[in-house]
Design brief:
69% helix; 16 helices; mainly alpha
Length: 318
């Protein structure tokens, strides 16, 4: 079993580095909450290798990630409390080795790759990072219907990560020299990556961000539709996480899609208000999709405004 020291360290990592998700995690039943702390701490340990290399060369970063992978899979002994706790958790919940390997491979991608030509490329990356996280979370919840739940969990994980990418456009270029907006989307709107690199916001970049935000909102709709497959005591926490992440879209719209010059952040009072509001509607209606539509800032398909047009755009016929 994961001991109290391992749990305390994992919880501390989660609280300090995953502030939005932490609010929702606290609503999980203990049987899942403690495991979630360990999962999140493992994800952060791997992520830190590429986000904060501290002078390590790319070769050294790859080696560190492979060591983390082997320790997490129980192939090599480790004195790292987080990795030891995760390895025990993986065995107890029968988390497939390939999910761990897929996740670590995505982290390794971040060492060398900082630009994405197409959304398909970005989606492949997200399958290894956020989607793998969603799969592992769903497995520890014990759905009883993984065939229905896991594809939706992958979509919700992708929605969370795409929201993060859209929120952090400027931060990612300054801190990590990465642009997660696909080049094909930037090109479609005439946006110049050089402007992002210079932290210079343009209307064209805003249109590209809006385009990807619509894509993320469709992922939320698909992902939230799978919450009903989770155990009833896990549905509200996951729904709350979706509401909290999706609220960044409100902030992005309020900034007219400029996340290049500043990074919007949800305040503590707003988070607490959303948690309480989601819980209130849940008391009266246990339909995750209905509550999400009522509380979140994600429009339904019927409410979604038409894409903005620019001078010279073709006029739709029919």
């Amino acid at each position: 079993m994961v001991d109290s020291t391992q749990l305390a360290e994992s919880k501390s990592i989660h609280r300090e580095t995953g502030k939005t998700f932490y609010y929702a995690t606290r609503l999980l039943p203990e049987r899942v909450r403690h495991s979630t702390y360990v999962l999140y701490a493992f994800f952060r340990v791997a992520d830190e290798v590429v986000d904060n290399p501290e002078g390590s060369s790319p070769t050294e970063q790859h080696e560190q990630l492979l060591e983390i992978r082997d320790a997490a899979l129980g192939r090599e002994p480790t004195d790292d409390s987080v990795l030891a706790a995760f390895s025990e958790l993986r065995e107890r919940h029968d988390i497939p080795d390939e999910e761990v390997e897929t996740f670590v491979d995505a982290m390794r991608t971040d060492i060398e790759k900082s630009r994405y030509e197409t959304y398909d490329e970005l989606e492949t990356y997200m399958r290894g990072s956020a989607a793998a996280v969603g799969v592992m979370m769903t497995i520890i919840m014990k759905t009883g219907d993984d065939e229905s739940a896991l594809p939706k969990a992958r979509r919700l994980g992708e929605a969370f990560q795409l929201t993060n990418f859209l929120r952090d456009v400027g931060e990612d270029i300054v801190d990590r020299d990465r642009i997660y907006l696909p080049r094909e989307t930037l090109d479609a709107y005439g946006a110049d990556p050089a402007d992002i690199e210079s932290r210079r916001f343009t209307e064209e970049i805003g249109e590209a961000i809006e385009h990807e935000m619509r894509r993320a909102e469709q992922l939320y709709r698909e992902g939230v539709s799978g919450i009903k497959y989770l155990p009833i005591d896990c549905q509200l926490p996951v729904l709350t996480a979706a509401v909290l992440y999706a609220d960044h879209h409100r902030l992005i719209r309020d900034r007219e899609y400029d996340t290049v010059t500043a990074t919007p952040s949800i305040g503590t009072l707003r988070k607490l208000s959303l948690v309480a509001k989601t819980r209130w509607y849940w008391v009266w209606n246990k339909d995750p999709e209905a509550v999400f539509a009522k509380v979140s800032e994600i429009p339904t398909v019927e409410e979604e405004p038409a894409p903005r047009t620019r001078p010279g755009d073709p006029v739709p016929m029919g």
